[in-house]
UniProtKB/TrEMBL annotation:
It is found in: Mitochondrion inner membrane. The keyword Ribonucleoprotein does not apply. This is Mitochondrial import inner membrane translocase subunit TIM22. The chain crosses the membrane at residues 12-31. GO terms for molecular function: mitochondrion targeting sequence binding; protein transmembrane transporter activity. It comes from Diversispora eburnea.
Amino acid sequence: MIQESCPFKVALSGVGGFVLGGLFGMFMSSFEMASVDPTIYDQPMKKQLKATAQDMARRSFSMAKNFAVVGAIFSGTECVIEGQLDVLLALH
């Protein structure tokens, strides 16, 4: 019963979007590091790793938030539309 409720679906979509967005952000940050700071490769290895980890965390969190919002909005909109359709069908 609770699994069919709109708040549960919205929360689940938000959490799932956050996790998938975080993973996607980590994956995408590995491709874009050189474009952010091309001089990073002239730095010592420790600074390179630190800069890479910070960039990866920042991009992952940003994409995770975006995916969570999009998932929650999509799921919430779907619930509202389904609810309105149920009301309209009950009237006829």
